[in-house]
Amino acid sequence: MPFIDDTAVKLGMFDQRCFYEAFNIFDNQSIEKSLTSENILVRIFAALDRRVGKRTLKKIGENIENESETFRVFYEIRMNAENDKR
């Protein structure tokens, strides 16, 4: 599977197989390993997963400036969802 970075995601320069392969990788490894994956799609899947708790999300937020713009967008979506929970 070719490496997928932020530019490829922004431009949509990956095919359906890359998306499914990234999900397969995510689905067959630990959430901790997915959160540190080099594949941005795997990391996005992990950040959106409900197994990732608030403390882990806060830890990710401490270094969010080092993340790609696309990952930050999905991180914000997840954080907004956490804040909307009652």
Structure notes:
This protein has 86 residues and is an all-alpha fold. It has one domain (6-84). The protein has 6 helices and no strands. Helix 2 (16-27) packs across helix 4 and helix 4 (40-48) packs parallel to helix 6. The chain is globular, with a radius of gyration of 13 Å. The chain starts with 5 loop residues before the first helix and ends with a helix. The model has no long low-confidence stretch (mean pLDDT 87).
Please give the number of β-strands.
Answer: 0
CA-CA gap between termini: 40 Å
Secondary structure class reads: mainly alpha
* Percent strand: under 5%
Provide the helix percentage.
55-70%
Q: How many whole angstroms does the radius of gyration measure?
A: 13 Å
Largest sheet: none
Indicate how many domains the architecture comprises: 1
Mean pLDDT: 87
User: Count of helical segments?
Assistant: 6
Give helix and strand order, one letter per element, not per position.
HHHHHH
Oligomer: single chain
- Low-confidence runs (pLDDT<50, min 5 residues)? none
